């Protein structure tokens, strides 16, 4: 899947709110950087921000009380 498609799908998951998406990606990327396991496959060459976006696009991460929950 291309980056534009992933971003579009992730935006749809958060009601097209770019601010919420940015917050969710930042929080999840921080969790991944701290050692959290990725919830998607084939992430060996991906950066934590890209993994976070893909997780959101695939519905693995949801917005719960204004925070990202895995």
UniProtKB/TrEMBL annotation:
Q: Give the enzyme's EC designation.
A: 2.7.7.6
Q: Could you tell me which InterPro entries the record lists for this protein?
A: DNA-dir_RNA_pol_omega, Pol_omega/Rpo6/RPB6, RPB6/omega-like_sf
* Record's keyword terms, sorted: DNA-directed RNA polymerase, Nucleotidyltransferase, Transcription, Transferase
Q: Which reaction does it catalyse?
A: RNA(n) + a ribonucleoside 5'-triphosphate = RNA(n+1) + diphosphate
What is said about its interaction partners and assembly? Answer: The RNAP catalytic core consists of 2 alpha, 1 beta, 1 beta' and 1 omega subunit. When a sigma factor is associated with the core the holoenzyme is formed, which can initiate transcription.
* Listed GO MF terms: DNA binding; DNA-directed RNA polymerase activity
**Family matches, as Pfam families:** RNA_pol_Rpb6
Could you say which residues form the signal peptide?
none
Role this protein plays? Promotes RNA polymerase assembly. Latches the N- and C-terminal regions of the beta' subunit thereby facilitating its interaction with the beta and alpha subunits.
Extract the SMART domains matched here.
RNA_pol_Rpb6
Per the UniProt record, the source organism is Candidatus Campylobacter infans
One Gene Ontology term, aspect cellular component:
DNA-directed RNA polymerase complex
Q: What is this protein called?
A: DNA-directed RNA polymerase subunit omega
